Amino acid sequence: xxxxxxxxxxxxxxxxxxxxxxxxxxxxxxxxxxxxxxxxxxxxxxxxxxxxxxxxxxxxxxxxxxxxxxxxxxxxxxxxxxxxxxxxxxxxxxxxxxxxxxxxxxxxxxxxxxxxxxxxxxxxxxxxxxxxxxxxxxxxxxxxxxxxxxxxxxxxxxxxxxxxxxxxxxxxxxxxxxxxxxxxxxxxxxxxxx
Amino acid sequence: xxxxxxxxxxxxxxxxxxxxxxxxxxxxxxxxxxxxxxxxxxxxxxxxxxxxxxxxxxxxxxxxxxxxxxxxxxxxxxxxxxxxxxxxxxxxxxxxxxxxxxxxxxxxxxxxxxxxxxxxxxxxxxxxxxxxxxxxxxxxxxxxxxxxxxxxxxxxxxxxxxxxxxxxxxxxxxxxxxxxxxxxxxx
Lengths: 194, 187
What we know:
Chain A is 69% helix and 0% strand. Chain A is mainly alpha-helical. Chains A and B meet through helix 2, helix 3, helix 5, helix 6 and helix 8 of A and helix 1, helix 3 and helix 4 of B.
């Protein structure tokens, strides 16, 4: 059940109060953005998807049942938009050095250097190789920390399905990571694992 | 539980998603199987790398840009500022117009029924009886009975003068002596 303050905020949003909607955006923009970013691996695209998610929320908030958890609805929109964008991007990109479906943005991420930054880049590159539905559950569980039940509500499947996808996603991630470790180095960078 | 079965469960064991029975069985196996224990450590390491992605900062101005772009779309959204859905506003506007029309019609009818039928000022034979009943309007005629300072009610036929009909009453049919005056029974 949502907290009373949020219910009141949503009620004001449903009445068209811009200030209330701004409060709602500020409350959820951070997590929304990072879900999109970890799904898409690109800051600019993540921002666009976040914007689109909030616009869709505003257009449909009048029909939202405020007795339900708002974040479930919002993050469902973000995940679906991210998956749609991933599919469009994978169709328009050529196959990268990593293999099929590499979506990692070639532009360097801002203000990052050192081993931690290298590790982050490597993790992102492996994450980008996962199929969308596995990437979604891994992002929501291992990066964002949602429970399996919450993930089930967000992605619209059962708890058992979420656990099965997590199982497959972690095994696949591990296999791809080992493959990178065993394969040739990319861009002359040392692997970030020992 | 053998290594094969345990290794199947290790990805979920690393995230704490196992059922209690499975978890206890895996933990019991790990107490004496180092290979499986190392496998579990690798899965936990992967999870820690992924969790490490959580702490990050977006490019400067990201939050401001998100709100600026979202706000551009707000005026075109169905929800209106002020809290009134468009459909309800249209209904209220239509109701106001109808009520205004009915009030105006009522006022118009009331004015017509209150005015006397004043004769035209051009015809000397047109006149009205002194003391004509202001409300004495023949049935079916449009003229309300009313006297006015410059109206014919004061001058009367005895004076021989006819005051001009006020502009607002000129559309009414004039009295002519050839027509009998109305009686109250006509109403």
